[in-house]
Amino acid sequence: MEVKFVLNRSEIVLNVRPDEYLAETLRGQGILSVRVGCDESNCGSCTVLIDGKPSMSCSVLTAQVEGKHVTTVEDIQKEANLIADFFGDEGADQCGFCLVGFALVVHALSLEYENPTDEEIKNYLVGNLCRCSGYNSQMLAVKRYLAEVKKHAKK
Amino acid sequence: MPKSKLKVVNKKTPSVDGHAEMMGRPVYTDDYAPHGALVCKMLRSPHAFAHIKNIDTSKAESLNGVKCVLTYKNVPHVAMSRAGQGAPAPSPIDKFILDEYVRYVGDEVACVAAINERTAEDALKLIEVEYEVLEPVLDYKTAYRNKNIIHPEDGISQAFEMGFRPKENVAATYEMEIGDTEKVLSQCDVVIEHTAESQAQAHSMMEPHCSNARLDDHNRLVIYSCTQTPFHMRRILTKTLGLPLNQVRIVKPRVGGGFGGKQAFHCEFFVALVTLRTGLPSRMVYTREEVFSSSYTRHPMMITMKIGASKDGIIKAIDCRALSDTGAYGEHALTVFMIVGSKVLPLYNKVEAVKFGGRVVYTNHVSSGAFRGYGAIQGNYVLETAIDVLAEKLHMSPIELRLKNSMKEGETSPIFEVMGEGTKGTPMIMESCKLPYCIERGAELIGWDKKYPRVQVGPHTIRSVGMAIAMQGSGIPFMDMGSSSIKLNDDGSYVVTSGATDIGQGSDTVITQIVAEELMTTVDKVTIYSSDTDLTPFDVGAYASSTTYVSGNAALKAAQQMKDRLIKEAARILEVEEEDIDFNGSVFKAKKKELTLPELARQITYSKDMKQVSVTESYFGHVSPPPFMAGYAEIEIDTETYEYKLLNYVSVVDCGTTINPMLARGQVEGGIVQGYGMASCEAVLYNSQGKLLSNSFSTYHIPTHKEIDKLTTEFADSYDPTGPFGAKSVGEIGIDTPPAVICNAIYNAVGVRINDLPITPEKIMRALKEKKR
To answer: What is the CATH number for A61?
Structure first.
């Protein structure tokens, strides 16, 4: 079936199977930043933004994104680079498999909340699993990124 | 070199790969799968134990798009160990690529390679298998000499005597004793006996196991795999398939976490065979369910500690008996088992006698294998809860009892000489051991004096604290070898090729720092490539907490040699003696003459007497200096529901010099949270037919952002003279303490000791009910 959607700000028309999930479609298109960790919407590694909302692409049918905007980390390179700076500074990046998902979720969080509490940050990040870091350093990095974004927004 | 003079090592340095990973670059194994590669899928056993009477693949083979079907009938029948260890293999040689027996639900029956995933899955359904279902052994306590023999087949063996008795369902046996334990125990004022069990924890690395294969321009087989042991893999794979070693290349790209789970083979045999048979590239990626139910787990164990002490609190003897469940195959059966003794019992080194032993049995469960902690966490859970039991009986503080009896700097334990990994050990003196500091500092940070054992903070809310100590090792002496090559570029920068296997722990960063420090340059002048069996020098791989210590020492030696070579070249060009040269990393100075490093590099590349300057060095350890730590937790428990949460986990760690303090913290904290998962929530459930039910992240809960509030991690000021810039290992030590710490904290809160992991509210409630009876 034919599906038309906006991928990273460019309109794209694809012929997909009706039972095809977005993660498979995107990886098939060479968007290899989509990391499939569990394929059952539990780990968050395959997160993309659909109309700005974090969504697990392993569990969204490609047919469902008809007419929508899909954003992968390729489209938020500047933000991801800055998030990576803070993750690197806090030693929060180890194997890195979860990081793309985190970049997209943290970016979405920064757009959605102006002053999130720790509780709100955790609620937002809870769907993204990391087995390496122990989360503590990630939390510190995320807070520093949010503060940086806010500082620039004020200017 | 004193720490104060260090410029790169021990300094905050971002990881070399973090940005590429965050920004989504194609860096992991499956990202390298050739476009259009055949998709390999595995038909897996629905039975815990069965004999394949007949297997008919003709319908699957005739399905359009199917290129290859592998069964036990058409693959080499050569026994091997998938463990990914050195040679001779210290694990039973008890596995065939595919076999006519299947030994657990999820065991491999047949592999299909097809032009796409759907076709491969359809083909699996067309394979007709006639099973003779056999009675499985599902309880490891009844496995020994059970009438149902899990490995009745011929052709399996052990490379050396390890007590492998397949007809008794025994994969390995080990016994040791120093002194007369029974006699010393009989003379002790106080003797306690404590038994506890730990579960088959799942590694749960985020990247599923995967590999892909192709034939290269020389018609050689090239396999990309998320492996921790590329060089062992090449050796075992070529031997099993009957190929010359030099006809296979293994490339390890970035790995999305291993924790021991990727030390052993997973997809590699199958993609190799498919590509060799068809000539076509192939790829295989495990589903998450396959990662849970068809890879490897931690060895479940039941351990009994009998400890004797004098009434003034001197521990005189320890008798440790253990029973370990290796599951269907014996990967790491012996070596994990030995660590229960060798990296746990030396903590209390003042004993007059110590005994350790037991057996590792087969069951029809998912195979156990290497997992961070590697026996030490199982042993530590039981020893460090037993020490609390003893402290209570002696009316002593658990801290005082530990301070009195634990290892100190300059001391040793006779266990080091007796026990190694699979073999005899190596004697060693603790040249660095800040354990007393770790214990005291941890108590301070958690606020022990004010909080021990418990504080009632609400009508049905209690806060309590618990603690434990631990040790690990730094590689396996005389067994683990690492190496690095360094070449000089024509602009004066360097390229390091290292065998060390970065699986996310950050070894590429750490080795880059070591080289940059020694060559008095900055990390941006050093590029590293690692783990390619064709292009990098040998390394045993990422296991046994060896990389920073063993591979790091190799990198340091290589950098030292590079420095010597550069000085030699500079002396020649400047026409001075080598001794006259003063090199600061960027300029060579001698008798008013000067030469910059870039100028030297340019001259020897493009001017007269041109050459490539490159060096290779290797290192193997003569000792394995243990890192030590003290772990403390404060928990809050609801005395109506017995739900508890972790308020703070304090770790004070002696790992020598931290090469990269932030990554070292990450290693410790990642280990703490993985250990906390094992302690608190990672329940392993099988049904009565032996099928693993906890086979997804919804049925097997690993800690999320929500469970972790506060981790307090500090490093003791410590320096081990045998390590690179004073470093010891830090990869595993973090995981060891949480099970005992949480168990002790729960006991301190509500007065019951939960002796099987994980410690759930239901178990606490049940134990309290039983106590009241």
So the answer is: 3.10.20.30
